[in-house]
């Protein structure tokens, strides 16, 4: 695994209006992620493994839900947003293995990298998904479309952000 590059001192990530996507359900999940990440970063390396595993489990559920939403609103199952999720989870799992192999500082480095990564992901890919869900009338709490005829299945391969079509 390539070493995770991050700035030596990454500032703490705190929830703010800048991270909001406009979808209440998505934003609640993101707030939980930010809270768990901040708590993890406050721990010494020897106390990070179990909270890190909890963060992985939260992230797996978070990404799985977003990917269900993507398919429901017309994204292809293997769109770039879903691929990005897989890459992040693969990296998070690899970090756990490296920690268990004795690199006890790797979780702290990964947590810093996640704190750098998350704002851009939320403001681009997730905000794009949230906007598309609003456009097609998708309710993220019930996971239902107000009018299913507004969505053509598996037509969008991009992430939904303005940077990817």
Automatic annotation (TrEMBL):
The keyword Metal-binding applies. One of its GO terms (molecular function) is metal ion binding. Keywords: Iron, Metal-binding, Oxygen transport, Transport. Coiled coil: none annotated. Pfam families: Hemerythrin. The keyword Magnesium does not apply. Residues 26-129 form the Hemerythrin-like domain. CDD domains: Hemerythrin. Belongs to the hemerythrin family. This is Bacteriohemerythrin. It comes from Tepidimonas alkaliphilus.
């Amino acid at each position: 695994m390539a070493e995770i590059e991050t700035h030596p001192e990454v500032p703490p990530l705190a929830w703010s209006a800048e991270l909001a996507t406009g979808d209440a359900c998505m934003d609640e999940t993101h707030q939980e992620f930010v809270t768990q990440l901040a708590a993890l970063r406050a721990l010494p390396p020897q106390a990070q493994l179990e909270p890190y595993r909890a963060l992985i489990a939260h992230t797996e559920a978070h990404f799985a839900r977003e990917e269900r939403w993507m398919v429901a609103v017309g994204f292809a199952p293997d769109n770039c947003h879903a691929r990005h999720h897989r890459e992040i989870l693969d990296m998070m799992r690899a970090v756990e293995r490296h920690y268990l192999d004795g690199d006890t500082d790797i979780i702290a480095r990964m947590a810093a990298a996640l704190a750098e990564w998350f704002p851009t992901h939320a403001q681009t890919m997730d905000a794009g998904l949230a906007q598309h869900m609003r456009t097609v009338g998708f309710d993220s709490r019930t996971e239902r479309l107000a009018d299913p005829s507004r969505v053509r299945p598996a037509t969008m391969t991009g992430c939904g952000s303005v940077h990817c079509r």
